[in-house]
Amino acid sequence: MSSKDRCVKLYIIGLGLYLKQITLEALEILRDRCEKIFAEEYTSISSRGGIEDLEKIIGKKIIRVSRKDLEDLNGEILLKNLRENVNTCLITWGDPMTATTHVSIAKRAVEEGFCIRYVPGISSIHAALGFTGLMIYRLGKISTITFPKDNILSEYPYHVLRENMIRGLHTLYLLDIDVEKNIFMRTSDAVRILLELEERFRENLFNEKSFVLGIHIDEDTIICGGEAKFMLKDPLKEVPQILIVPSKLFVTEDEYIRSLGLKYDRCITIS
Amino acid sequence: MSSKDRCVKLYIIGLGLYLKQITLEALEILRDRCEKIFAEEYTSISSRGGIEDLEKIIGKKIIRVSRKDLEDLNGEILLKNLRENVNTCLITWGDPMTATTHVSIAKRAVEEGFCIRYVPGISSIHAALGFTGLMIYRLGKISTITFPKDNILSEYPYHVLRENMIRGLHTLYLLDIDVEKNIFMRTSDAVRILLELEERFRENLFNEKSFVLGIHIDEDTIICGGEAKFMLKDPLKEVPQILIVPSKLFVTEDEYIRSLGLKYDRCITIS
């Protein structure tokens, strides 16, 4: 047996945005190679089907880990298992490694001499572009809009919007989510925050007539499109959500969005 | 039965980067809902497992379509089937809808009154970031490096590099691929082209000592990291490949890349 074969391994596995989006590869690894499975659900959540359903499919118990376990305690619970020669899996909804926490834990595992294997899952960013027909070549820097903390509103999303708009690039916003605290920002909240930042900076980057898209990805994906004012009415109910502020649309993008009827204050379901 | 249920549907399905990366959702749709399946393999290719293997898994025949079918003939073959009330599937490796062609065909289908359903697949862009630990928040505009056409070399990749570097963002390059013509650009080719463009513009954006990462994603993913000069030696053999020119690395990114030993002219396999 080569040293590679004997390497105790940490698998960092993305499950996709809902249970059916899991890949055959992830399923196979969960079934055949994971001796202990830990699920992190505070940075993302499934739109449909949960950890209990996954437990039934793979016939194994899955242990929940909290933000405290992974961040404050640096994923020590995973490292402890690896040190006891247990092939250990960390699973999360969507795609892992987008979170700095996962990268830090992977680094720790490698530094202690363990092998790692990242298993990609469907990412909300990529899927949101696919559903709206926006070109990835025209995507600018990605940012997150968060609720004010200690009454301080992050101005960063506005700066990102400016930079992207100058370059004619679309801006995709991930929205504040903290499953442990039951916080799920909606596109209506995000639009309100962008309007507040516009009020503060007055650079005319964003107003009530700006064209925006809101998306909830699920087996029945819902896309709302129209003026920011429309999104303020909270037409998109389900969470988690993504907000896109497109720059000037390229002709194929514009035609596609028009064909879906999303140009003028409307929501559609793609199922 | 509602009108929605009766809607004849065009499914545009991503298979992921190799056969095992297919999602349960894609498999289920291929098995249960696709009455006719067309595969487009000229914009992307599987790293492992092909259309024949997929045919065996789902127990259905899959028809190949060419660039001519989809681009010159505007996907007429798909529309023809939809008009005959046949639920039709277009499958492709990786994620679809990144290609303008797929978006155009989806638009045509919607305009003719058919329903569409995009089914996301694992994208090489997202997976390349996950494997290298680079943060998606620090990713700049994406671009493609192509071989010279009629002796003219596109200067666009250099302009994208400039824009991204000014903003401190990483540049990810997809590399020229044309399966029908057996063209697969390698990271060594791409680095050579960037050096040639540097020679032309002399803005000191890129030189033989620039840090770059090359990735081939597969069940055994290979990552090479080091100076551009190292990549010129063609250490990464398998195709398709992606080239990343990172901007200044963030501390977690730098630590992760160092832990993998990728900082100084080395290739590793993650399996």
Provide an overview of this structure:
With 271 residues, chain A is α/β, with parallel strands linked by helices. The first copy, chain A, folds into 2 domains: 3-119, Cobalt-precorrin-4 Transmethylase, domain 1 (3-Layer(aba) Sandwich), CATH 3.40.1010; 124-270, 2-Layer Sandwich (Methyltransferase, Cobalt-precorrin-4 Transmethylase, Domain 2). The first copy, chain A, has 11 helices and 13 strands. Chain A has helices at residues 3-6, 24-32, 51-58, 67-72, 76-83, 100-111, 124-132, 156-166, 187-201, 228-232, 251-259; strands at 9-14, 36-40, 63-65, 88-92, 115-119, 143-145, 171-175, 177-178, 183-184, 211-216, 221-227, 242-245, 266-270. A 6-stranded mixed beta sheet of chain A has the order 6-7-12-10-11-13. Chain A starts with a helix and ends with a strand. In chain A, 49% of the residues are buried. The interface between A and B is large, with 59 and 58 residues.
TL;DR of this structure?
Chain A has helices spanning 3-6, 24-32, 51-58, 67-72, 76-83, 100-111, 124-132, 156-166, 187-201, 228-232, 251-259, and strands at residues 9-14, 36-40, 63-65, 88-92, 115-119, 143-145, 171-175, 177-178, 183-184, 211-216, 221-227, 242-245, 266-270. Chain A has 271 residues and is an alpha/beta fold.
